[in-house]
Write a structure and sequence with these properties.
The chain has one domain (about 5-270): Alpha/Beta hydrolase fold, catalytic domain (Rossmann fold). Helices cover about 30% and strands about 20% of the residues. The protein has 7 helices and 8 strands, in the order E-E-E-H-E-H-E-H-E-H-H-E-H-E-H. It has helices spanning about 55-65, 80-100, 115-125, 170-180, 185-190, 220-230, 255-270; strands at about 5-10, 20-30, 40, 70, 110-115, 150-155, 205-215, 235-245. An 8-stranded mixed beta sheet has the order 1-2-4-3-5-6-7-8, with helices on both faces. The chain is globular and about 55 Å long.
């Protein structure tokens, strides 16, 4: 693949700048072919780590196929999941404003991995405020109608925040930590931030990229999500990538990564 020329922009949500609230945009140079769908990336890292820069290699690959890409950060320390949902929505809105300013369609597919897949899924499936998150932070309060994503491509996705049998202890600790209250004390908060609870007729298409060696979020939970979606008339599909591990889609050098990238491109073209 020969990368096309691109431009790089960093945008910040707040003035003064708040660490963790920023957006990187990779845009093809003027005159280069562009797709009608853009891609918004949400990084993983167990809700307490990671950076938007982890998405740059994938963004360059997508940019080489004509997709405008944005990658958001969200605050990691001293916040809960509801703050992170808000930060992700604000980054998404900033990306939509950028597309509008460039005269591009406001059609965006969201992509996330692990914790980023969780936030991306909620972005695609839940309306603003529906999870219980705040809508405004300091002087950043998005105005105008909500423009939901056109679809979601998700890798290593926690489709539910409610505990399941044999849940990986470290990830359950992380989930309870980011909610801010133990599950037994506030189970309703965990249901609110469970993507599967926000499925409804008319929900956007979802494509799950599943690793054969996934050890945190079992495939059977994803299949339950897909079954519920299809019963509601919602398009949902998945593919399992052999010998791939949790969070494998961070580059485009390995066979599994290239296969997944091709599948994402086909999914985007079908939206």
């Amino acid at each position: 693949m020969t990368p096309m020329p691109f431009s790089f922009t960093s945008l910040y949500f707040d003035n003064p700048i708040v660490p963790g609230r920023a957006l990187d945009i990779f845009d093809a140079d003027p005159g280069a072919p562009k797709r009608d769908v853009a891609i918004f990336f949400v990084h993983g890292g167990g809700w307490r780590a990671g950076t938007r820069q982890n998405m740059h290699l994938l963004m360059r690959g997508c940019n080489g196929r004509g997709f405008i890409c944005g990658a958001t950060d969200y605050r990691l320390a001293g916040v809960n999941i509801f703050d992170q949902i808000m930060d992700t929505r604000h980054g998404y809105r900033l990306f939509l404003d950028y597309l509008a300013g460039r005269g591009r369609p406001q059609r965006v597919c969201v992509f996330g991995s692990s914790a980023g897949a969780h936030l991306a899924a909620l972005l695609a499936l839940a309306a603003p405020g529906e999870c219980g998150e705040p809508l405004a932070f300091r002087d950043f309060a998005p105005a105008g109608p909500w423009v939901p994503p056109a679809g979601a491509a998700l890798q290593a996705t926690p489709v539910t925040f409610e505990p399941w049998p044999d849940i990986f202890p470290a990830i359950w600790d992380s989930m309870q930590d980011i909610v801010g209250k133990p599950y037994d004390a506030a189970p309703e908060l965990y249901r609110r931030v469970s993507p599967i609870e926000h499925l409804r007729p008319g929900s956007r298409p979802v494509f799950f990229l599943e690793a054969e060696c996934e050890h945190m979020f079992p495939l059977d939970l994803t299949l339950k999500f897909i079954a519920k979606a299809r019963a509601l008339g919602v398009r949902a599909e998945h593919r399992v990538y052999t010998r791939a591990e949790h969070g494998f889609l961070y580059d485009l050098t390995r066979r599994q990564q290239r296969e997944a990238f091709d599948d994402i491109t086909r999914f985007l073209e079908s939206l």
